[in-house]
């Protein structure tokens, strides 16, 4: 076990100098959409607090954009921005909530062929949650991408990702847990 761990730790610096595979692009921009499972479970018709009746819920889904720079054969770094809107009425008055997340990201590519690649990734950043009443709060946010399948050859490709996006300030301020479990994107590489 010790030998395997030492071998793994020694191989990480070697991978960093491996270079980008021939024909692979260094830059990638992607635009995508992800589900809002957490939000739809928390915000739903019939939620009542005292005399406040919440109705007419609407959701945008997670709309996100990302830029990546490929360092070598296995690692790329980037930045991602994610936006979502949650809308409802309280006793007939509209309430519009928005979440904006910005985070640096790291991608670990572990399988790559001309038409398909598999990767996982992580990201840590911050969320700003704001609403139409002037409220605004900040909290840490993190994304764990368990598995992404990218399909396409040439500059255009598409990706299907499984993971989860979290933003929690404390036990009373949970903005999302396990959100964006499934996401899709269209990518352009150069």
Mind sketching the topology for me?
Layout: H1 2-16, E1 27-34, H2 37-42, E2 48-49, E3 52-59, E4 62-70, E5 75-90, E6 93-112, E7 116-131, E8 136-151, E9 156-170, E10 173-179, E11 182-189
Antiparallel strand pairs: 1-4, 1-11, 2-3, 3-5, 4-5, 5-6, 6-7, 7-8, 8-9, 9-10, 9-11
Question: What are the defining features of this structure?
Answer:
single chain, 190 residues, elongated, eight-stranded antiparallel barrel, mainly beta
Number of helices: 2
> Strand fraction band?
over 45%
State the helical fraction. 10-25%
Which residues form runs of ≥5 with pLDDT under 50? none
Q: What strand order characterises the main sheet?
A: 1-4-5-6-7-8-9-11
**Secondary-structure element order, N to C:** HEHEEEEEEEEEE
Largest sheet entry: 8 strands, antiparallel, barrel
Radius of gyration, in Å, reads: 20 Å
Average pLDDT confidence is 89
Report the end-to-end length measured between terminal Cα atoms. Answer: 41 Å
Shape field: elongated
Structural class: mainly beta
Tell me the number of strands: 11
Detailed description of the structure:
- It contains two helices and eleven strands; from the N terminus they run H-E-H-E-E-E-E-E-E-E-E-E-E.
- It has helices spanning 2-16, 37-42; strands at residues 27-34, 48-49, 52-59, 62-70, 75-90, 93-112, 116-131, 136-151, 156-170, 173-179, 182-189.
- It has an eight-stranded antiparallel barrel.
- It is elongated.
- The N and C termini lie far apart (41 Å).
């Amino acid at each position: 076990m010790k030998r395997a761990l030492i071998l793994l730790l020694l191989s990480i610096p070697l991978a960093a100098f491996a270079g980008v595979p021939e024909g692979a692009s260094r830059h990638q921009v992607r635009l995508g959409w992800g589900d809002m499972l957490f939000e739809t479970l928390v915000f739903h018709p019939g939620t009542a607090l005292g005399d406040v009746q919440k109705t007419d819920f609407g959701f945008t889904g997670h709309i996100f954009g990302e830029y990546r720079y490929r360092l070598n054969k296995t690692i790329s770094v980037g930045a991602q921005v994610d936006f979502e809107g949650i809308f409802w009425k309280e006793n007939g008055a509209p309430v519009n909530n928005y979440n904006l997340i910005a985070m640096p990201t790291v991608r670990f590519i572990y399988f790559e062929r001309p038409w398909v690649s598999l990767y996982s990734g992580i990201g840590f950043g911050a969320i700003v949650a704001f609403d139409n009443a002037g409220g605004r709060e900040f909290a840490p946010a993190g994304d764990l991408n368990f598995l992404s399948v990218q399909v396409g050859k040439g500059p255009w490709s598409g990706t299907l990702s499984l993971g989860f996006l979290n933003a929690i300030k404390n036990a009373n301020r949970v903005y999302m847990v396990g959100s964006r479990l499934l996401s899709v994107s269209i990518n352009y590489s150069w």
